């Protein structure tokens, strides 16, 4: 199979991680990343670590980050950020649906712009809940189903193309609904549009859920 004349494996493994690094690394997104990371503490699992775009925003209260990331190229792209980090960061595995940690082993969790592509996001969130201590916080910043019906209609139209071009990225998932389905207790969730982004791709949810 090919994607735009490029074999799917090459696109997925060698092109897509660079595209994600560029598009998700825009300066306009940095304030949202900073807010998502605020309040993290202790030993943190970050699911969908990518190229380490959250690393500069880890607070001093974090003692170590266990990075879960399937793409080898994304991990290599993160090398300079990891090396410059005041917080120790280590790669802990490739699959958010099967975390290599004991029950209640970690203090906090972080997931940003990742639930859209995980094949079974509720299973992944249930895994995160399993490895968090009771009351541990999951900080999330995700895009998904928009609050406005007109935008939702466009999301449903565009989603098949989005999934093909962006590594299985869904536009119509609902982060808050998935968190509750995985057993988390939601705190306040902020829903807003990223001003610089097209609304079907820029409907964001930011908040904290408790295990």
TrEMBL record:
* SUPFAM superfamilies in the cross-refs: S-adenosyl-L-methionine-dependent methyltransferases
Q: Does the keyword Transferase apply?
A: yes
Q: What Gene Ontology biological process does one annotation of this record name? A: methylation
Superkingdom as given in the UniProt entry: Bacteria
- InterPro entries, A to Z: Methyltransf_11 (IPR013216), SAM-dependent_MTases_sf (IPR029063), Thiol_S-MT (IPR052356)
Keywords assigned:
Methyltransferase, Transferase
Boundaries of every Methyltransferase type domain copy: 45-139
Q: Which GO terms describe its molecular function?
A: methyltransferase activity
Tell me which positions the record assigns to the signal sequence. none
On whether Ion transport is a keyword of this UniProt record, the answer is no
* Protein's name in the database: Class I SAM-dependent methyltransferase
Protein's organism: Janibacter alittae
């Amino acid at each position: 199979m090919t994607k735009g004349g490029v074999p799917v494996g090459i696109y997925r493994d060698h092109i897509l991680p660079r595209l994600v690094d560029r598009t998700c690394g825009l300066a306009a997104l940095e304030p949202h990343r900073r807010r998502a990371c605020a309040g993290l503490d202790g030993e943190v699992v970050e699911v969908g670590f990518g190229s380490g775009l959250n690393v500069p925003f880890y607070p001093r209260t974090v003692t170590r980050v266990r990075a879960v990331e399937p793409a080898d190229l994304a991990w290599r792209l993160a090398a300079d950020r990891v090396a410059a980090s005041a917080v120790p960061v280590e790669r802990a595995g490739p699959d958010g649906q099967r975390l290599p940690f004991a029950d209640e082993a970690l203090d906090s969790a972080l997931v940003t712009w990742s639930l859209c592509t995980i094949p079974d996001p509720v299973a992944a969130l249930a895994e995160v809940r399993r490895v968090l201590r009771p009351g541990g916080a999951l900080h999330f910043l995700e895009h998904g189903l928009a609050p406005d019906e007109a935008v939702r209609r466009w999301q449903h139209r565009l989603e098949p193309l989005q999934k093909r071009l962006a590594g299985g990225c869904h536009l119509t998932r609902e982060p808050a609904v998935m968190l509750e389905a995985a057993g988390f207790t939601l705190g306040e969730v902020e829903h807003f549009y990223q001003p610089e982004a097209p609304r079907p791709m820029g409907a964001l949810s930011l908040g904290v859920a408790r295990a």
